[in-house]
Amino acid sequence: MKKTAIQKTRIPESNIFAVRELHDRHFDTTWHAHMEFQLFLVVEGTGTKFVGNTVKPFDKGDLTFLGPNIPHLWRSDECYFDAHGEHTSRGLVIYFNGAALEKLIEKEEFAQLKILLEKVRRGMELYGKTAQKTAKLMHELVHLHGMESVIHLFRILDLLTKTKEYRLLHNDMVYYQLKDVETNRINIVYNYAVKHFRHKITLEEVSALLNMTPTSFSRYFTMKTSKSFSYFLTELRIRNACRLLSTEEAKNIAQICYESGFNTLSNFNKQFKTFIGMTPTEYRQKFLTL
């Protein structure tokens, strides 16, 4: 049986919140959701994160704040699955239960915190100095206990209530009530797509993974993710190209095109501009001038 973590609690009943340090070859490969709020920092590692129906690359320093019941997966790059490789993944995560703060956030002094907790029900990606300061505070929190740790947690939340350095990951709040069997199915598709997106993936082969017909699979995938599988696959390839364009200066655009799973440079340029709003050359130039 495949591991699922749907609605699995991460906080002991005796605690308001819990801090976890993650250190393994790769991050958990399970698409899952839980009732707690989650603030997750990538300390080391690269890959692709799936948050609700959003697909984005992640790297060291990536900081994401999620509300309850948003399915998510941080899928490490293939090199982290090499049993003989030297790559490792490290993360730092804070889980806390909004119910423990319910009475508190109704008070006037916590009005900004209430607004923040509503925003993160759509998923929030933090960047810039805010992400750097938050990461520092999170590392400090690991070593604190009792009242001191609670005060430090509120320092983090206070910082996040005031920042403008964030991007919301959805147009609407996401509420998913996935059954375990659905979680397993999406796990299979996502992990297969991330592993093989550099090559041609047909609807027939991916639908066969779930013992479905291509037509049934198409309907199922669109219903569960709000996008077609072909759109999802293109999005995955474009996000990989974005990562390479911003980090691999030695590779030309044609190399990045083919390494991201596109068959022709013209199609790559067209799709890239559709998704990102600029050409690959313009996107790369933006990073070179930083």
UniProtKB/TrEMBL annotation:
Alphabetized UniProt keyword annotations: DNA-binding, Transcription, Transcription regulation
Entry keyword DNA repair: no
InterPro entries linked to this entry: AraC-bd, Homeodomain-like_sf, HTH_AraC, HTH_AraC-typ_CS, RmlC-like_jellyroll, RmlC_Cupin_sf, Tscrpt_reg_AraC-type_HTH
Source superkingdom: Bacteria
Gene3D superfamilies: Homeodomain-like (1.10.10.60), Jelly Rolls (2.60.120.10)
Keyword Acyltransferase: no
Domain HTH araC/xylS-type residues, every copy: 187-286
Classification via PANTHER family: ARAC-FAMILY TRANSCRIPTIONAL REGULATOR, TRANSCRIPTIONAL REGULATOR MTLR
Protein name: AraC family transcriptional regulator
